[in-house]
């Protein structure tokens, strides 16, 4: 899973020391592919992240989950996952996603800068209305062993069916005699 990451050091105006790391699950995709944007934060003071996600025409937002703030190794950590599908080819930027840090000392908008996601167009063959040609049937010869084995299995099956039919016929014949 290719990842881009940018670490932002936040000092003012909240007087917080920490970082926010954003990463993408892929560098390139095609329209309709699932892409995961993962944002992780860690601060010295209790701080929670709030996301403002725009309503855009070039993506479908599938899931947005912000985890709880956890205290670990002397830092307050939080993780958020945004799962989406880009709808058109081209450069997909994230400049309109706003991340706000909230703490006891106030609220501040944090800049989350991610590289532009490269959404590749479909190739001509994938986007054509013309049906794809079926592969030409090849004439593969079965091996002699497989051919003999299949004949032997078929003959054995017929032999067993014949034995069962004969046994039923003899049994019925004995029961029908007085």
Key traits:
alpha+beta, 178 residues, 12 strands, elongated, Immunoglobulin-like, three-stranded mixed beta sheet
Helix/strand layout:
Blueprint: E1 6-9, E2 18-24, E3 28-29, E4 35-43, E5 47-52, E6 59-66, E7 70-72, E8 75-86, E9 90-92, E10 98-103, E11 106-110, E12 117-119, H1 144-176
Parallel strand pairs: 3-12
Antiparallel strand pairs: 1-2, 2-4, 4-8, 5-10, 6-8, 7-8, 9-12, 10-11
Describe the structure.
The N and C termini lie far apart (83 Å). Helix content is 19%, strand content 38%. It is elongated, with a radius of gyration of 33 Å. The model is unreliable at 1-16 (pLDDT under 50). The chain has one helix at residues 144-176, and strands at residues 6-9, 18-24, 28-29, 35-43, 47-52, 59-66, 70-72, 75-86, 90-92, 98-103, 106-110, 117-119. It folds into two domains: 6-119, Immunoglobulin-like, CATH 2.60.40.10; 143-178. The protein is an alpha+beta fold and 178 residues long. The strands form three sheets. Strands 1, 2, 4, 6, 7 and 8 form a six-stranded antiparallel beta sheet that branches.
CATH architecture of the largest domain: Sandwich
Q: What is the CATH topology of the largest domain?
A: Immunoglobulin-like
Low-pLDDT segments: 1-16
Rg over CA atoms? 33 Å
In terms of DSSP E residues, the strand content is: 35-45%
Number of helices: 1
Indicate the structural class: alpha+beta
- Note the quaternary state here: single chain
CATH class of the largest domain: Mainly Beta
Tally of DSSP β-strands:
12
The CATH superfamily label of the largest domain reads Immunoglobulins
Distance between the termini: 83 Å
- Could you describe the largest sheet, including whether it forms a barrel? 6 strands, antiparallel
- Percentage of residues assigned to helices: 10-25%
């Amino acid at each position: 899973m290719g990842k881009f990451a940018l670490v932002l050091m936040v000092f003012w105006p909240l007087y917080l020391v920490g970082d926010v790391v954003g990463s993408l699950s892929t560098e390139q995709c095609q329209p309709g592919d699932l892409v995961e944007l993962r944002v992780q934060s860690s601060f010295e003071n209790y701080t929670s992240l709030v996301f403002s996600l725009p309503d855009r025409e070039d993506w479908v937002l599938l899931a947005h989950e912000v985890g709880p703030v956890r205290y670990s190794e002397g830092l307050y950590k939080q993780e958020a996952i945004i799962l989406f599908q880009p709808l058109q080819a081209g450069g997909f930027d994230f400049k309109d996603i706003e991340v706000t840090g909230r703490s006891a000392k106030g609220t501040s908008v944090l800049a989350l800068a991610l590289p532009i996601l490269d959404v590749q167009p479909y190739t001509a063959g994938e986007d054509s209305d013309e049906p794809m040609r079926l592969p030409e049937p090849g004439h593969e010869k079965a091996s002699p062993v497989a051919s003999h084995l299949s004949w032997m299995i078929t003959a054995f099956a017929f032999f067993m069916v014949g034995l069962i039919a004969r046994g039923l016929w003899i049994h019925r014949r004995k029961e029908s005699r007085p």
